Amino acid sequence: MLLAVLLPFIIAIIIPFLSKWKDKIHPGYFVTIIPALIFIYFARFLGSNFEPVMREYSWIPSLDINMVFYLDGLSLLFVLLISGIGALVAFYSIFYLHKSEQLGHFYVYFLLFMGSMLGVVLSDNVFVLYSFWEFTSLSSFLLIGFWNYKKESRYGALKSMLITVFGGLSLLGALVFMTVLTNTTSIQEMISQQQLILNSEYFPLILALLLLGAFTKSAQFPFHIWLPDAMEAPTPVSAYLHSATMVKAGIYLVARYSPMLSSSDWFFIIVSSVGIITLCWGSYMAVRQTDLKGILAFSTISQLGMIMSMLGFGTKVAVFAAVFHILNHATFKGSLFMVAGIVDHEAGTRDIRKLGGLMTYLPITATLALFGTFSMAGVPLPFLNGFYSKELFFDASLHLDEIANVGVVGFIKMLLPYLAVFGSIFTFVYSVYFFFGTFRGKSHLEELPKKPHEAPIGMLISPIILILGVILIGLFPKWINEPFIAHAASAVKGLEVQKEIYFWHGFLYPPLIMSITVLVFGTVLYLSRKQWAPVYRIIPGVLSMNKFYDGLVDRLETYSSTVTKGYMNGSLGRYVRLVLAAILIVTFAFMAITGGFTVDTSNLADVSLPEIFVAITMVIAAVGTILTNNRITAILILGVVGYGLSMLFVLYRAPDLALTQLIIETVTVALFLLVFYHLPKLRKKEEAASTRMLNLIISVGFGAMMTMIAISAHSSKWFESISSYFIDNTYKLGGGDNMVNVILVDFRGLDTLFEIVVLGIAAMAIYGLIRLPGKKEEK
Amino acid sequence: MSNLAALPIILPLLAGIVVAFIHKKTKIVRILSQVISVVNLIAVAWVFLQVQQNGSIILETGGWAAPYGIILVGDLLSMTLVLTTNIIAVACVFFAPQSLSKHQEEYYFYSFFFLLVAGVSGAFLTGDLFNLFVFFEVLLMASYGLIVLGNGKVQLRESIKYVLINLFSSMLFVTTIAFLYSVVGTVNMAQIAVRVQEVEQQGILTTIGILFFFVFATKAAVFPLYYWLPRPYISPNPVVSALFGALLTKVGIYSILRTFTLMFNQDVQLTHTLFIYLAALTMLFGVIGALSTHNVKLIIAYNIIPAVGFMLMGIGIFSEVSISGTIYYLVHDMIIKGALFLLVGALVYVAGTSDLRKMGGLIHHHPVLGWMFFMASLVLAGIPPFSGFIGKLLLLRGGLAQDELMIVIVALISSLLILFSMIRIFIRGFWGEKTENPYPERKRKAAKMAWPVAILLSFSVLLGVGAEWFYPTIQSIAEYLMDPQIYIDSVLKE
């Protein structure tokens, strides 16, 4: 099983090396084999007596991150969809993408996606799941940006990435939370310890984070906005990622965690209402689209909403219908995307306003579209699988017996059947619109960039297979029910789910009445669509999530820029002020909170008159330095401070230090005087009085703070200093008379060595600066 | 006691001095520097293995026993960081000839480079607070030398800011050491730890600790002390930027980590809570900075800051898991920042501009550069299975285990924004219409620039995918840091 997941990745790495054969044979043939093999591998597991399989491969055991693959009914459904549709799409792409395209890139992303998607649905380890999850987002980003010379592609790619990675990160938050609470990284073990999570005070947050991840990925309202823009990707990609598989990852996640979460009222409220709103909004908006792929994108959004809401209901019927519809949706929507691709390919446009009457030119394609759209619309015919799941959906919305009747829950429960019908009416309208708008009516051949003709047979094979699926599932639902769908539904529900699928239940069967209502109202609305089209000017009107997203992204940049320029203005004075103020405030606060300030006068020596004199001189000189306007005066006064310091050393009986200080001071002043000759005149910067006041407060405050800490440090001599060791051993062990010297060259010789290095570096840096060639003054 | 502890300092010190004497013979210096760097890396790796097998290596320099002499402590944390430093050094030394001008190479680039490595390694290894100050001076002085190298006008203007802020923080550093010495009467870190513990960090000690924090935080670029960082970091040559971005702020973080696990660990409630808040602000303001500009170099420089927030977060949460997260992130960040600065240096070189608005379609001419950049963006944003993810995961786990909800959410938001700031470069710079290559003649040199970056990036992948090989070591370091007694006993031998 590890090989099955890793195979696409391995091949993805090999593909770039095969690029030189690209001209001889289309790499798509090669790539089609891989999902086909995977499909065959997993198809072996099908059967009524299927039992979940668990495989473990060690990866990072010390972090509890291992490749644990868990294949149950739900995973099996997804795995077969991913590999099956993957093979069909890869085959289709051979005819869709010309050899002159960057095929190597395309198939690498394609395989990366396929491997990641398999990983998502098979991983039992949450962090492995998360890794694959992010990789699906990334490969989707690269595929949408495949034609990145188009501005729209770049826009769509960024949008999908930001929204899905946002969801991915919030999913990560939820997963880490659950890991910390249950102390396991396995989904199955988390479910078995669900009480720890459900009873945690953080449960609402965990649920919200998890659902954010699922809703963004599965394009649920209001995060659906990335999906229509993702249609910039080549059509095979749209058919595969943005309809059949990747967008169902969110559905998968919710289904996977259903056994744990569905007992919570919050889960029902959020998931079923978000799902049903998405269903209605998506189908309503689909009618307005003019691009064939745009219609299909909103249709996908709406169908995903339908599946999501059924998972939210959580009843046996609903769960069964949900997994059944996952399969059905993949068949008819996959084929419809391929149809859209064929129309685009053969007629040169996907704009439904220019299309029409193509039935005569593309008869086979039109037939395929007919089955696909009618199945999507849920037209009650026994050979359309879409009708069965639609009817089960209506049935489920009417039989929410496990749900309480009180409060918000009861209110939502009451509304659900009506919203289900409302959404389905529009589904009917856009399905009919898609078919009739493209294939019937008047043809305007002169507006088409190409003269339309039927697609090559190779391009038709994949959609034909999918439509055969639509019909066969419709005719013989039993074939897939027990060996397949029932297992998937049981895995979601957490207990055995059995459900017979019938076509005919009698005339007074309520779901049938709902279906017929949809049919009637749908036809009326389709025929009168010109009359009520202005309603779109009111809803959504100018308000749209897209505007919100664009505004957010734009503003993120402008606000960041404003904020950053607000304090990073390049002025050194300002930086220093901010740094000092920050240190000042926090350190004072800490000193106050910990009661750090202490004064202990018991251990002080007497102050003599010369000391006071020297100290006052130094203070006056220091203040004088700031006040003067003249560099030379400033440096001379600064010299006074230095000499004062050496006087203090003399008074404290440290003649060697005094001497050193005296030399340093003299040399410094002399050097400064030499250099200052070359400098421009010192100009006092004109600063606002408030800034000067602020400077004064900060500097006085900082001085006061340092003084207070110094006093406190001096008053807290709790330990004997190590200096006594040096006093005792300077002569005995160090062999010298002068303690300072012995410390410098022996006890702490390493310090001295590196201080010399510091001086050496400084010398080299200055030399390098002076020897700069091409300096203006140099001739 | 073993002299091995000094090896990572001595070798680059000697190299720095030797190449200074033959600085005009550029070709010899180049090859010599490359050879020595590789040798040094191997030597350090060997010492690392010794430490991993036999425990910390202690060197009492000059034979003066602790706490009187200067002690070098080659423990697993120090050696891990020294090893990472040398990996970056090797990548930089091979990148350098491609991006430096003749004058820059002649006027002591390689000397400054080696002495910077010596200073950084010394800072990681020393067990003496005053000696830490000295090594800070070494690495700072070398960085001053590097930042003015080449003498551009903008460069000098930005250097002044860099130098002044760092001088200030050095002054504060040495003053604070004096304060601490007055209270505990020692500068040996192990002994300080013992004594602070003995009096339960009462009185003025916490305040002194906070001053130390600010000293290191200024170097590490923690909010609100990072103003000096972004522009001075991008004004010198890319290879210098890479050294700065990879090493300098990390020395600050290391110092905070060491100081607040070993010495000031008695008032965690107060000090470490401050760290968590500052970490959150650092992440947010840093990433806002990265989004505020179209200068690709500046975007990378700003991205240093949120990473510092992540590392500080782990110190603030202060559990074994979170500390191991910090260490993992530290190693990861050193490598990826080195790689990114070099990469962006190459990008600017081939594009002829650092303004994102003037770029586009570069991937058609420089596919390798483009894909490496894409990968580096993922690594930086902490996308699995790369190195950034492991560190981030540990930090998130640690945070939630301690109920630090706020910082976890901020960390997640920042991750998204980091990715956005990076992918912007990829979309606007590399994607787009295929246009005439503005500088076709630069292709060969750019390919040479790609190699060192590829090596660094493969380390990032290895650290992520092969986390099993590294994590146990990192975890044992965290365990060791959370129990300071081990350090104290190994140094003071009581």
TrEMBL record, chain A:
Subcellular location field: Cell membrane; Membrane
Claim: Ion transport is one of the keywords in the record: yes
GO cellular component, one term: plasma membrane
Transmembrane segments: 6-21, 28-47, 67-94, 106-122, 128-149, 161-182, 202-227, 267-287, 355-379, 415-436, 457-476, 507-527, 575-597, 609-627, 634-652, 658-679, 691-711, 752-770
Pfam families in UniProt: MbhD (PF13244), MbhE (PF20501), Proton_antipo_M (PF00361), Proton_antipo_N (PF00662)
Main location: membrane
Family: Belongs to the CPA3 antiporters (TC 2.A.63) subunit A family.
UniProt name for this protein: Na+/H+ antiporter subunit A
UniProtKB/TrEMBL annotation, chain B:
InterPro entries: CPA3_Na-H_Antiporter_D, NADH_UbQ_OxRdtase, ND/Mrp_TM
Cleaved signal peptide residues: none
Topology in membrane: Multi-pass membrane protein
Keyword presence, Amino-acid biosynthesis: no
Stretches that traverse the bilayer: 6-22, 29-49, 69-95, 107-126, 132-150, 162-184, 204-227, 239-257, 269-291, 298-318, 368-386, 406-427, 448-471
UniProt keyword list: Antiport, Cell membrane, Membrane, Transmembrane, Transmembrane helix, Transport
Residues of the NADH:quinone oxidoreductase/Mrp antiporter transmembrane domain: 127-417
UniProt subcellular location: Cell membrane; Membrane
GO cellular component assignments: plasma membrane
GO molecular function terms attached to this record: antiporter activity; NADH dehydrogenase (ubiquinone) activity
Domain of life: Bacteria
Biological processes per GO annotation: ATP synthesis coupled electron transport
Record-stated family: Belongs to the CPA3 antiporters (TC 2.A.63) subunit D family.
Stated name of the protein: Na+/H+ antiporter subunit D
Organism field: Halobacillus locisalis
